[in-house]
Amino acid sequence: MGGRSDHHNRQEQDRRRSQAESSSYGRTHSRRASERDAHGQKGGRGRKGNRNPYADLTPYERYLKEKKRKRADRIIFWVILIEVVALAVGAFVLLMPKEDPEIEELVNKKIEFEYQTETDRVVTYGLAVPRPNIDLQLLSVNEWSRPGIKVDSIDKIVVHYLGNPETTAQENHDYFESLKNLQNTYMSANYVVGTNGEIIQCVPDGEVAWASNSANYYSISVENCHLDSSGKFTEATYWSDVHLVAYLTEKYGLGRDDIIRHYDVTGKDCPKWYVVHEDEWEQFKDDVMTYRRECAEEQRKMIDELLHADEDDETDEDILRSYLNGLNIETEVELETSDQTLWDELKRRAEKAAE
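-> structure tokens emitted (355 positions)
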């Protein structure tokens, strides 16, 4: 019995050993098969181009490699985005309307008004209309009558009547000056023409005068005295007004349609006589332009004499001096010094006109 039992035990041990070896082989075989699968050696995935690039890396190495790949992806994304934006901006610039250089120049242009001698004006503007006798009595700079504000441009000459019969140009000037103390109304004008034809300048041409409402910022205002409530100008007032407006329109390059009434700005009956009598207002503008034409013809005649003076006639200097005196030059002319430039300019203009 004991022998059989030992034999039986040995058989049982051999059987268990055989099972253990078989189990160990199975596990080993399974693990190796898994490793082959991981390396792409099963199912036709063992070709060189499809090998998993992360298979032989540690988790940390895989993390670094993945991080680097994502960073490269982000760089590529931003490069593409920047290129797309640049193309869009370029297309917008090409398709947008081009700016007109002349308009840009006008927008950026600074308006400046300089005080000039009459000689300077003749050279600059080639004025044919003589400067009227103007009494310069500029108002004190103050809020109520001369605010000192530069106009935006000079596009119109506005004619007014004062509405207070039998007052003089001087009285109206003094009233404008007193407003800085009274501080009860805003009123003034660039010029006041009296019933005897006298002209007083109260505000410089390039500054705002409180006279023409919305037109204050692009015009020069001329107030006119009158003897009664009809607002009709005296003969002296009328012709002084014609000469002044002709001078101003030529100086600032304005035409017939740029001579307007206060009425044309606001509908107010000012100047009253020329609102009621439209035909006489048209005649006033005709007289302004006729006077300008006559002055231009006289200028051409005088310059022609300068160019064709004979030896027995007056000298060029005498003719030029006479011509300048006719323009009411404010300072004495010395041809051999300060007015040589004017002399050359007049000759140049005459030669150009003769071409």
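The first strand starts at residue 135 and ends at 136.
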